[in-house]
Amino acid sequence: MFGDLMGMMGKLKETQEKVEATKKRLDTVLIDENSSDNLLKITLTANREIKSIQIDDSLLEDKEQLEDYLILTLNKAIAKATQINEAEVSAVAKEGMPNIPGMDLFK
C-alpha cells in the first residue's frame, strides 16, 4: 500500500515538474493578433505576457478609436493565448496523473 502511495507521490512530483517546464516553454510561444484592418498588431506569449504593440500612425489621431482597437485586439490575443496555455498545461497534467477511479479532473 505504501509503495503504491510513494509511487503515486513520485509520479505527481514528476508531473508537477513537467507542468512547470511546459509553462516555462510557453514563455517562448508567441501569438500575433491583428485588428481586422491591420492597423494594430499585438504580440504576446502563450503565458499572456505582452511582448509588443504596433500602432499605425492613423490611429494616433483618435484616442477613442485607438482604445477600442486595443481592447478588441488584446481580448482576441488573450483568448488565443489562454486556449493554447490551457490545452498545453492540461495535456501534460493529464498525461502524468495516476488513474484513480472517480477522479477524472482533466476531462
UniProtKB/TrEMBL annotation:
Cellular component GO terms, alphabetically? Answer: bacterial nucleoid; cytosol
Q: Does the keyword DNA-binding apply?
A: yes
Q: Where are the transmembrane segments?
A: none
Tell me where on the tree of life, at the top rank, the source sits: Bacteria
Q: Does the keyword Cell inner membrane apply?
A: no
Please provide the record's keywords in A-Z order.
Cytoplasm, DNA-binding
The record, for SUPFAM superfamilies, names: YbaB-like
Where is it located?
Answer: Cytoplasm, Nucleoid
Q: What InterPro entries does its record include? A: YbaB-like_sf, YbaB/EbfC
Looking up Pfam families in the UniProt record yields: YbaB_DNA_bd
Alphabetized GO MF terms: DNA binding
Task: State the oligomer form and interacting partners.
Answer: Homodimer.
Family, similarity comment: Belongs to the YbaB/EbfC family.
Role description? Binds to DNA and alters its conformation. May be involved in regulation of gene expression, nucleoid organization and DNA protection.
Q: What is this protein called?
A: Nucleoid-associated protein SAMN05421855_102395
Native source organism of the sequence: Ulvibacter litoralis
